[in-house]
Design brief:
With 327 residues, this protein is of the alpha+beta class. Helix content is 40%, strand content 23%. The chain has 2 domains: 185 residues, Periplasmic binding protein-like II (D-Maltodextrin-Binding Protein, domain 2, 3-Layer(aba) Sandwich); 118 residues, D-Maltodextrin-Binding Protein, domain 2. It has a 6-stranded mixed β-sheet. Helix 2 links the parallel strand 1 and strand 2. The longest helix is centred in the C-terminal third of the chain and has 20 residues.
Length: 327
């Protein structure tokens, strides 16, 4: 894939005179490294940063309340013609991710015809879980929406799809030596403890959806990309190029200081710095050629269900004109 050119010119006087760009940010721990880098840059003084859940940020970018920011993969694909993809930035994994899981009170193979809760904070992971259960395993569960809480999900159903802190907590609780399956492979189903029907305590399994995707497709999983609204990019290409450079620099700064990032992120959370250091090593913040292949495969599966248009290709931002992400 050809390299995407970005201008090295500083912001022009015209760019400085317009309103501050509205930039979205995901309030989950998976974005904390980039936020840590941004807090040490000048960018925060030139933008209005709006921090919300993945779905709230996605909705605001789609309806124009934000100019630029991360967007969950399925929402990007649904609005691919309205958005330009920012190069080199994503949130994904090439194997286990720890924070996107199917938590089940029964073996996954027994979920056909059973009740599965879909958490309210990620349309991309809930759709990914359906691909895994339906397309990969040939199952047809009954789905219902639920708050993103493992106890609530297992109180009402046999399994739940959950992301973020609840999924990460389920992963680490399941990985405790007292309940870990001896010899379990990374990303394999791990036993944990939850609340079953009627409030009865039961052992549950934690299945890493990114690990399952990698085992099934051989491809990385991209959960979110960074995008800019097309009309905003066309009006302010130098500003968008500047913001993009600062985001990449913030990411790179964080990746060079993993101990500092993990210690900072652990403050006010329920996780230790060592746990978060392990978590951040599983995440991928770049948008590689393999990651683009993973995105395209996800798009094809979603297109079969009529959720997205399978014929649309991503278009990258350039300061001069958009260019399709073709090889």
């Amino acid at each position: 894939m050809p390299a995407v050119r970005l201008t090295d010119a500083p912001l022009t006087r015209t760019a400085r005179s317009v309103r501050r760009p509205r930039v979205g940010f995901i309030s989950f721990l998976n974005c904390r490294p980039i936020q840590w880098g941004l807090e040490r840059s000048e960018l925060l003084h030139r933008i209005d940063l709006v921090s919300r859940t993945p779905e709230q940020v996605s909705d605001r970018l789609v309806d124009g309340r934000l100019d630029l920011g991360p967007i969950t993969l399925v929402e990007y694909l649904r609005h691919i013609d309205e958005l330009l993809l920012l190069p080199a930035l994503a949130i994904g994994a090439d194997g286990p991710v720890m924070s996107c899981a199917i938590v089940s009170g029964v073996p996954l193979t027994e979920l056909g015809g059973r009740d599965v809760a879909l958490g309210s904070t990620s349309r991309t992971t809930t759709l990914l879980a359906r691909f895994l259960l339906e397309d990969r395993m040939g199952l047809r569960p009954r789905y219902f929406p639920c708050e993103p809480s493992v106890p609530a999900m297992l109180a009402r159903g046999d399994a739940g799809v959950v992301i973020g802190d609840p999924a990460l907590r389920a992963h680490f609780d399941a990985a405790e030596p007292a309940v870990r399956t001896p010899g379990a492979a990374p990303g394999a189903a791990a036993p944990g403890r939850g609340v079953g029907h009627g409030g009865v305590r039961q052992v549950h399994q934690v299945h890493d959806t990114a690990a399952m995707w990698r085992e099934w497709t051989g491809l990385p999983m991209v959960f979110a990309v960074w995008a800019v609204r097309r009309e905003f990019a066309e009006r302010h290409p130098a500003m968008v190029a500047y913001i993009h450079r600062e985001l990449v620099a913030a990411r790179d700064h964080a990746l060079r200081e993993p101990a500092s990032v993990s210690a900072d992120a652990a403050e006010g959370s329920s996780f230790t710095p060592d746990q978060l250091a392990l978590y951040y090593r599983t995440l991928r913040y770049d948008l590689s050629a393999a990651a683009l292949d993973g995105m395209r495969h996800y798009q094809r599966l979603a297109a079969r269900r009529g959720i997205v248009d399978g014929d649309r290709s991503p278009v990258f931002f350039t300061p001069d004109s958009p260019r399709r992400a073709e090889r």
